[in-house]
Inverse folding.
């Protein structure tokens, strides 16, 4: 290694070129060999403490030495989310376009809190979220031409938090700031736990967070009747209903809440209606899946994670809102050191007022590159391919009488379980728990679980960029093999 490189400067264009090439080569080689790694990391807790020194080096080390350590010590502790054999949780997509956008963003390294801090960062974000909003056929109220607009948050958890705060403050301005203890939030018991965290942060009393029961009769979607009863009861008890969260594609089973009916209820009571389509929203760029967000026109805010199923590297969560002033009133500060002509004259958007932190990365670059380098038709094909692979897996499961499908497959998640010979539910739960552990410990596939109506269920979510039919077939073979072994021990 040259002495020039061993004395790495904080920034030098030629060193950057040399090291950058080596880094890209390392990542490209990783993708070429990604199938060779166990998908779920097989290390024990604390493994890395034994492998690394207990203090930082005094003198610089070589880049090659660092890469060797990444290969030997870090990669064994990685669960490979981009592996074609990754079927757990929901996917978190990477792509060449997303990676290049991330690299450009890291290279420019701006902190775009206000328009003046980097005008292009703000303006590109506004334009790109209008593009994506149009691809989803969102109502014009959500686009930047009117009172609304889009903003990129880090995750859906941040999105639900900022809209909950906006709704809270809007209501408190109306009913008085001492009424915080009376505000009530509604959602189904399938709603992402981020809503509960948002309530904790927003000062909503835990006993006023209504997670309404769902069951198989509605395929685990929120029942409008159950919601109406809860709201009526709360109003009769002197409480103030203020926020409803509907989900398109719940975490457990991709249940779709009936947005049209929920929207009407929210409207009739003047409640803020937020729609969380973090995972499934991406599918709605396909005309045949757009129906799942019918009713979004009644919503006050809508969110999807482009980093889940839209080829955009983590993190990039798109949030649209109908009344941007509600966000700004809840989250804006105006310190002297940030004052400038464009902001004072109200000529520009300052996204610092639409989010929790002040600082923000140039995330719209990633989304812009994904939209331009793939285009709508390719993105639609990408989504359809994963859904077809999930349909294929569902067919495999239904052909084996030892298994059952537990909830309807709507997108690319299949919920299923292994059945014991007896009707013993406790035994069935233990059996599926053991089956999941046995499959994941092979390293050949990685799946996760959920519990629905007291049943322990396996989830196979198709959605990694490299997954093909052979990977789905291989996962099914491992499942069948481990199931036979388990049933043999009963």
């Amino acid at each position: 290694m040259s002495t020039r490189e061993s004395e790495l400067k904080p920034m030098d264009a030629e060193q950057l070129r040399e090291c950058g090439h080596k880094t890209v080569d390392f990542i490209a080689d990783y993708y070429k060999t990604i199938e060779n790694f166990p998908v779920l990391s097989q290390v024990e807790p604390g493994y890395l403490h034994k492998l690394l020194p207990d203090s930082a080096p005094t003198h610089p080390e070589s880049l090659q030495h660092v890469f060797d350590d990444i290969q030997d010590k870090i990669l064994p502790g990685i669960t490979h989310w981009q592996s074609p054999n990754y079927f757990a949780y929901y996917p978190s997509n990477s792509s060449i376009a997303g990676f290049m956008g991330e690299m450009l963003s890291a290279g420019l390294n701006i902190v775009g809190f206000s328009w003046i801090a980097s005008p292009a960062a703000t303006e590109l974000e506004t334009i790109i979220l209008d593009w994506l909003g149009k691809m989803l056929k969102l109502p014009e109220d959500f686009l930047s031409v009117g009172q609304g607009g889009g903003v990129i948050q880090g995750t859906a958890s941040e999105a639900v938090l900022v809209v909950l705060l906006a709704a809270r403050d809007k209501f408190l301005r109306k009913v008085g700031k001492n009424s915080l203890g009376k505000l009530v939030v509604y959602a189904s018991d399938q709603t992402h736990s981020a809503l509960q965290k948002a309530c904790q942060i927003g000062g909503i009393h835990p006993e006023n967070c209504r997670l309404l029961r769902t069951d198989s009769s509605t395929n685990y979607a929120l029942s409008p009747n159950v919601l109406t009863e809860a709201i009526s009861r709360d109003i009769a008890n002197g409480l103030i209903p203020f926020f409803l969260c509907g989900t398109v594609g719940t975490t457990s089973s991709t249940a779709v809440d009936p947005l049209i009916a929920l929207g009407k209820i929210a409207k009739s009571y003047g409640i803020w209606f937020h729609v969380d389509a973090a995972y499934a929203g991406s599918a709605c760029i396909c005309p045949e899946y757009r129906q799942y967000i019918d009713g979004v026109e009644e919503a006050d805010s809508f969110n999807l994670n482009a980093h889940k199923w839209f080829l955009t590297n983590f993190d990039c969560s798109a949030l649209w809102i109908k009344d941007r002033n509600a966000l700004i009133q809840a989250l804006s500060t105006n310190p002297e050191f940030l004052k400038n002509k464009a902001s004072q004259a109200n000529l520009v958007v300052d996204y610092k007022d639409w989010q929790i932190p002040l600082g923000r990365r140039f995330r719209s670059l990633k989304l812009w590159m994904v939209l331009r380098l793939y285009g709508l038709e390719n993105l639609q094909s990408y989504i359809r391919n994963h859904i077809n692979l999930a349909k294929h897996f569902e067919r495999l499961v239904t052909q084996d009488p030892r298994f059952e499908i537990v909830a309807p497959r709507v997108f690319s998640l299949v919920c299923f379980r292994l059945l014991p010979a007896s009707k013993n539910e406790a035994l069935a739960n233990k059996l599926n728990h053991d089956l999941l552990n046995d499959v994941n410990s092979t390293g050949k596939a990685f799946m996760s679980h959920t519990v629905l109506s007291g049943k322990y269920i396996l989830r196979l979510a198709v959605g990694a960029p490299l997954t093909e039919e052979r990977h789905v077939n291989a996962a099914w073979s491992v499942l069948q093999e481990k199931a036979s072994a388990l049933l043999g021990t009963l």
In short: Residues 111-374 form a domain with the Aspartate Aminotransferase; domain 2 fold (CATH 3.40.640.10). The radius of gyration is 24 Å. The chain has a mean pLDDT of 95. The chain is about 45% helix and 10% strand.
